[in-house]
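Weekly modeling sync, notes
Attendees: S.R. (lead), two postdocs, one rotation student

Agenda item 3: backlog of single-chain predictions. S.R. asked that every request posted to the team notebook include the full sequence so nobody has to chase files. The rotation student volunteered to paste the first one in as an example of the format we agreed on. Action items at the bottom.

Example entry:
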Amino acid sequence: MSRLRELIADRIRTSGAISFAEYMELSLYHPELGYYARAAQKTGRAGDFFTSVDVGPMFGALLAKQFGEMWRVLKSGSVFDLVEAGAGSGRLSRDILDAAQRHDPEFYSAIRLSLVEQSPAARAAHVDILGPHAALLAHSSAALPGDVSGVIFANELLDALPTHVVVMAENGLREVFVDVSDPSTLRHGSGSSRASRGTTRSGQDGRLVERLEDVSTPRIAEYLARAGAEMRVGWRAEVNLAAEHWMTRAADSLRHGFLVVIDYGHDERELYSGSHAAGTLTPFKKHSQFADFLQEPGETDITAHVDLTAVTRAAERSGLDVIARLDQTYFLLGLGVTELEGLSLHQRLALKTLLLPGGLGSTHKVLIFGRGVGKPALKGCSYRVRLT
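Predicted structure, as returned to the notebook:
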């Protein structure tokens, strides 16, 4: 048994089964043993999954073009806060800074960089990864800085925030908890075990298993009601309260400027429909979906599709204006991705990954919000504002 699995099992034996959201929090973000804590980089060919950053520096170069335009919209003087949330080791920000220094030195000279990352190992790599740009790094922390005037951006962050998982059972809405399937799950002083009251999805003695319990907070049912979700018996779904909370915190940090979220997901009407009746929770290991991820916490990436409607609603509640919601393909086309010259064969293949339907271009969505900037006609929104 791994150290993290043993820690989780001991917690369950002591205090009772934990929500899947708590299990996902421990599995991904435990400060020493979590998936994101154990190495600075988890993506790319040698990792467990690909992101837009892994196809080369072009993605960062195009973001640099958009952020430079945002700096000019703000007319904020000498300092422009560039804040990357979920920054990992800082590779994407490095690509952005490389391009800005080369093609827009006036913008580059205005940048004050903040990298926000939970993993201590990844934060420790920031200075080395940034290399010649390290002098621009003003903030490397697990928390967002306050009083941001510029842009906060997050690429594939919200999909990895811990999510509650629910099932519509014959007797109504139930939540997925994680328990241990052995006799020692008797709770201290309780006289009965949660296992005897819940429903086992699978498992053998000593294994971590799913149990169906009453929902842990009324906010889950309220969330689904706002979404208009009409789940049928047997349907599963994710309710990511943490994503809404993150949007609120990011909006609170933004005094003046833009919030850009890039992630894969759907509007609520599609997300809570029959096309996703099995839910969207997906564990990855070595670029393959990994079925038995409950048995290897800390060894597997776990994601769920983002509820784009919910995060948009959270931004609006926090006083942000919606500037654009569109597929990554259209965003990059608006920034002139097809006008790039002198590309190698490898770079052209990378472009296909970023743009073509079925790849990152159609699965990934770009949400742009603003505070105090009105609704400027940004280049990234100029080709076609469309969300598929």
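Discussion: group reviewed the output briefly. The CA atoms of residues 222 and 228 lie 10 Å apart.
Action items: rotation student to repeat for the remaining queue; S.R. to check formatting next week.
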